[in-house]
Design goal:
Length: 139
Amino acid sequence: MSAEQGQRQIRCLVAKVGLDGHDRGAHVIARALRDAGFEVIYSGLHRSPDEVVQAAVQEDVDVLGISILSGAHNTLVPKIMDGLEEYGAREDTLVLVGGIIPDDDKERLREEGVAEIFGPGASMDEMIDYIREHAPERR
């Protein structure tokens, strides 16, 4: 019996939003989270903000990881946050953003409700530890 089997399983959605067609990193992260004992759902490419919100709500995820490399984070992430608010899921969903986010934009995303931003070079262990420490408790 592994250490993770004695703990509740954290449910994560790794989402690719917008026209960004690069998902190698999202696949690597999804696999690392799965290997760390999390239940992982991958959205696939080119999802709209509404599709991401619907998947997060329907799958009742604890963590929503948004992978974005297109530079549209200031447009797409607020739409996702508004959608989570609309469905009453904002408070109990840990929202993380991964990708290339300029330093000047990070504070704005945090004000929108993003808990943490993991850029290039962030370690998987750092991300996994952060999720374990901050994932909301299941109802």
